[in-house]
Amino acid sequence: MPMAKMDSFLKYANFFYTAVGIEPYTRVSRKSAPSIWISFVFWSNIINLSLVLLGETVYVLISFATGEHIVEAIMVMSYIGFVLVGMNKMAFVWWKKESLSGIMHQLEELFPRTKETQSEYQLDRYLESCSRLSLTFSLLYSVLIWTYNLFNIAQYLVYELWLKTRIVGLTLPYMMYIPWHWEGNWSYYLLLFSQNFAGYTSAAGQVSTDLLLCAVATLIIMHYDYLGRIIEFKQLTGDWSQDSRFLAQVVQYHERLLSLSAELNEIFGVPLLLNFLISSFVICFVGFQMTIGVPPDLMIKLLLFLVSSLCQVYLICHHGQLIADASSGIALAAYKQDWNFADVRYRKTLVFIIARSQKPAFLKATVFMQITRGTMTELLQLSYKFFALLRTMYAK
User: Fold this and answer.
1) Are 171 and 156 in contact (CB under 8 A)?
2) pLDDT 10s per residue in the chain (396 long)?
3) Nearest to 104 by CA among 207, 13, 3
4) pTM value?
5) Nearest of 243, 286, 220 to residue 74 by alpha carbon
6) How far apart are CA 376 and CA 311, in angstroms?
7) Distance between CA 326 and CA 361 in Å, rounded?
8) Cα–chain-centroid distance for residue 316?
9) Which helix (H) or strand (E) holds 48?
10) Alpha-carbon distance 357 to 332, whole Å?
């Protein structure tokens, strides 16, 4: 295979970051100067998204205050949660750019640069997995957001203009409070563009950060697995002076990987916590909408939203589990090493490496949550509790 570059792991994340006007990190091999155009795109996205969020929030408050359109307001609350997650992720990446750049600099130093070392790292396997997941997740969210953005227009074209079975009218994709009469004049097209723009911004903000997190996690997992292999298959000489140098290199490498894992949690901890909390409500609200009786075409839209939310959460949980497994695998690799005839000092030192590795590195949503596949189960249980409560209140 041709020699790969680290950018190959990050190309999908960088594509979506560019779309929202964010340069998430700098690279040693690619310095970049601040761009006026990038800043303009970023602030245009943020201002437009904030205005749409404000309109949706006012709509929900008015609905609950008057007791009208409660079902529609619950659906709008799903949109609000979606927007809040996207804005939160974009804000934290923008705020933590310097720290994120530090992680990228370290990963760039560790990245294998020759075909021989890339083969030893089995880099092609990790790159293929990362690219496949990134492409699938990107396509899923792109289909989701453009289905929602264009759903009302498609209904108008099909049902009113083509089949002529019902009057749909020109409606907006998302319900929000608008303090003027917008139907039938030029402001409709301005609002349509604004909402489509906001929807794409929110989706791109989520997708880009999730793909960046998964790409960095994949690189760290690759290094953990490589370290485990070189420990397990190391042929010891029995000479303490030589074998102790190998141990020193192993400990330094391992400590560097643990430090990278901790820095990753420092950057993404708060966004992940908010993501899981808000996602539980979003899943609950969407599930509620699906159970109160909706037309088949709207059911497809809601099902797509639900599947996308579940896939996003599972993607993060899956990589959290892989990090935990790879870091704890160092202990097993050390135990499986042929240490029987090693110097007694080597064997005593190896015990400390095994003991340290039995406390694995976790992907953490701050100090409150260690993310593994079991976190997915906890999230679904929480969502179901909210769903049951909402159904009970609605029935009464």
Assistant:
1) yes
2) 567 888 899 999 999 998 888 888 887 655 555 577 788 888 899 999 999 999 999 999 999 898 888 878 888 888 898 898 888 888 888 888 888 999 999 999 999 988 899 999 999 999 999 999 999 999 999 988 988 888 888 888 888 888 778 777 778 888 899 888 888 788 889 999 999 999 999 999 899 999 999 999 999 999 999 999 999 988 888 888 888 899 999 999 999 999 999 999 999 988 888 888 888 888 888 888 778 777 777 788 888 888 888 898 999 999 999 999 999 999 999 999 888 888 889 888 889 989 988 888 999 988 788 999 888 898 888 888 888 887 787 666
3) 13
4) 0.90
5) 286
6) 10
7) 9
8) 6
9) helix 36-66
10) 9
**Token code pair at residue 167:** 């009057």
Q: What Å distances lie between residue 376 and 102, 319, 358, CA to CA?
A: 30, 12, 23
- DSSP 8-state code for residue 362: -
Backbone angles phi, psi at 186, to 5 degrees: -65, -25
DSSP 302-329: HHHHHHHHHHHHHHHHHHHHHHHHHHHH
Distance, C-alpha 111 to centroid of its chain: 23
DSSP state of 371: E
